[in-house]
Write a structure and sequence with these properties.
about 675 residues, Rossmann fold, Immunoglobulin-like, 17 helices, about 30% helix, about 20% strand
């Protein structure tokens, strides 16, 4: 769809604020909240997301008075509202009337009311009730002066995406008839000749519920696609209602693009359906270098947005409440995290939540206004960040300049993570994380791209995990290399087609021509086993995976020294047309992937930046100005070379050919 509504209405600065849940507090607290919001530089808050039970007390009995007063108060104080449709939390009365709308898991157990997101997205009763409350909100608030943005639902797919009930089963069959038309076509796509699974009547086709052994992988893959589409259809119903009744107000829903626990949605499809792409990101608190995952999340969200401005709608000021050990952020980390998102394309930084809750499941989640109040480090950092973001208004509308692309495909991951793959230790998400870290440590700014996307603008394209490949993506990568691109592919890529079927001939079917090789046999390693790779005067170490690679035009660059494939090629390079294609047949660490990237960057004509470790430098390019963000995640001061003189926006200081970035600090230089 087109995206004419690209920014929250009336918001003339970067977005700064968070989820505001005033229903948890007496109304006399609200004015104090708004006074403190103004002190902190808050420009927008998200409201009403979990308020269905307070807005519709019983079916058809509404109480909008409190929300009227809240929105009026925000408007009086110049704070914009991101107004939620509360359809993530149907009220208790709804489930009393429609217990069948509670989702059923794969084991056949129906979940109970009491958490959040307990929804069967195929339920007609839920769909009708969700549209009803959305319509009431749209008719009442479409012209309210505080309204800047509609926020549909909340974090679709979390914590439940699929429902295996009979209603969903019937919906699945309708989806399959649209996709395959006839049962013979379905039987062919699913390979039902295996294990005697052939279908002769549609009513026999069911969801992939719990089976005594591995289920049909093609069926499970289509089920994942169906689940994504069923949820997306519900979003589109609400969006279309809001567009019709509230024209001129953009509609979003908050994604969780890089959260490993939220891989049930294909955000490439979702990104095309929202007016503004928005994302929630929470650090993996115990990870030593969790700022790398943060950068990946921001880059991926920008890619889902098609390079357009996007919005960080939630992150945390400090600790979250749902990880095993909820580590607090160190002093200064709040600002670095926020600025890293802005550096990589977000048009603001918002949090969950404004005021810390005193009760409920998230009372130990950090907030902009913590339990400790305004005499706290967190509050001082929140106020300081608000002032810094206020000085960066001119950044709005600029675009991130990328050096390379990483291919990312949720549907391929769905397929690879099914049962009975050659090694449970070869995880596509781990490969994506590791290869991204290698690019990050080479100081490469990357875009993410779908395998069928136009890659012509990138001198270097990385493929950390692409088990499933379509014919279109195969042609696309071959065209990319022949036209002069440098492609680097990781092991176990190009193995199956869109139905999880191995194409005729040796592995890797979809990639063997572009890589100039075949794989005679996979050679997974035992737990803890490592293999040594030698070449280019350098030794690398692999684990988990090796292969018997046979060059068919490719040159051997590193070979296996030991292990099951000893003496065989391990890493190859295939000149093709005007470009080259590299293949890495073992699982390497980020450091060792970096050794391959050094060679590939040379092929691609990329000059690597000479920057200190964990100093993040990203450029945003505007119509008249460029902005260089330098974020120092290390414990020592760093010096960053500059392309031209400019002004450091956070301090107002002029700079010439280099910039000093203190330990733990951020600097933003504007230059022509």
């Amino acid at each position: 769809m087109d995206h004419p509504l690209s920014w929250p209405l009336g918001l003339d600065s970067l977005a700064y604020g968070g989820d505001y849940n005033p229903e948890q507090w007496p109304e006399e607290v609200w004015r104090e909240d708004v006074r403190l919001m103004r002190q902190a530089g808050v420009t927008m808050v998200s409201v009403g997301i979990f308020s269905w039970a307070l807005l519709e007390i019983e079916r058809g009995m509404y109480n909008f008075g409190w929300l009227d007063r809240l929105l009026d108060l925000l408007d009086e104080n110049g704070i914009r509202a991101d107004l939620g449709t509360p359809t993530v939390v149907p009220p208790a009365w709804f489930y009393r009337e429609h217990p069948e709308a509670l989702p059923v898991n794969r084991e056949g157990i129906r979940y109970e009311f009491g958490g959040r997101g307990a929804i069967c997205h195929s339920s007609p009763a839920y769909q009708d009730a969700a549209l009803s409350i959305t319509e009431k909100l749209a008719r009442r608030y479409a012209t309210h002066p505080a309204l800047a943005l509609w926020h549909v639902h909340n974090e679709y797919g979390v914590p439940v995406s699929a429902c295996y009930c009979e209603t969903s089963a019937a919906h699945f069959r309708r989806w399959l008839t649209d996709r395959y038309r006839t049962l013979p076509e379905l039987n062919s796509a699913w390979g039902t000749a295996f294990w005697g699974q052939r279908y002769v009547q549609w009513q026999d086709v069911r969801p992939p519920r719990l089976t005594p052994t591995a289920g049909n992988p093609a069926q499970q893959l289509d089920w994942a696609r169906f689940t994504n589409d069923a949820i997306l259809d519900n979003f589109k119903r609400e969006r279309d209602m809001l567009h019709r009744l509230s024209p001129g107000i953009p509609v979003t829903t908050n994604f969780m693009t890089a959260l490993s626990q939220c891989e049930s949605l294909d955000y490439w499809a979702w990104g095309r359906e929202v007016d503004i792409v928005s994302n929630d990101h929470y650090l993996v608190a115990e990870a030593e270098r969790n700022h790398v995952n943060l950068a990946m999340s921001a880059d991926l969200t920008r890619a889902v947005a098609g390079g357009r401005p996007w919005l960080l709608l939630e992150h945390s000021t400090s600790a979250v409440n749902w990880q095993h050990r909820n580590i607090a952020k160190r002093p200064g980390e709040l600002a670095r995290n926020s600025m890293a998102h802005v550096a990589r394309g977000s048009e603001g930084a918002m949090f969950f939540q404004w005021r810390a809750s005193r009760f409920g499941a998230e009372k130990f989640h950090s907030a902009m206004l913590p339990h400790a109040g305004t005499e706290s480090r967190i509050w001082r950092e929140v106020v300081s960040l608000g002032a810094d973001l206020g000085s960066l208004g001119s950044v709005r509308g600029s675009r991130v300049k990328a050096d390379a692309a990483i291919l990312w495909d949720w549907q391929s991951w769905w397929a690879q993570k099914l049962e009975w793959r050659p090694s449970t230790d070869l995880d596509p998400r781990e490969r994506a994380d590791t290869w991204y870290a290698a690019a990050y440590d080479h100081h490469l700014t990357v875009d993410f791209a779908h395998p069928e996307a136009d890659l012509g603008e990138y001198p270097l394209v990385l493929v950390p995990a692409l088990y499933l490949m379509t014919e279109a993506s195969s042609r696309n990568l071959a065209r990319y290399v022949r036209n002069g691109g440098t492609l680097v592919v990781s092991c176990f890529s190009g193995i199956v087609d869109s139905h999880d079927t191995v194409p005729p001939g040796p592995h890797p079917g979809a990639l063997r021509d572009v890589l100039g090789l075949t794989v005679e046999e996979f050679a997974p390693l035992r737990a803890g086993e490592q293999v040594l790779l030698a070449g280019e005067g350098q030794q690398l170490t692999g684990d988990v995976w090796s292969e018997f690679v046979v060059p068919r035009g490719a040159d051997t660059v590193w070979s296996y020294v030991d292990g099951p494939a000893a003496g065989h090629p391990a890493i190859t390079r295939h000149p093709l047309g005007y470009g080259s294609a590299w293949y890495v047949s073992s699982r390497l660490s980020a450091r060792d992937v970096g050794a391959v990237l050094t060679r590939a960057c040379s092929d691609a004509g990329l000059i690597e930046r000479r920057l200190p470790h964990d100093v993040e430098v990203v450029e945003r390019v505007g119509a008249t100005n460029h902005y260089l963000f330098a974020i120092n995640h290390s414990s020592t001061d760093a010096v960053v070379p500059l392309p031209s003189p400019g002004t450091e926006l956070l301090t107002g200081a002029p700079v010439t050919d280099e910039l000093t970035v203190p330990a733990g600090a951020t600097r933003v230089v504007r230059h022509a």
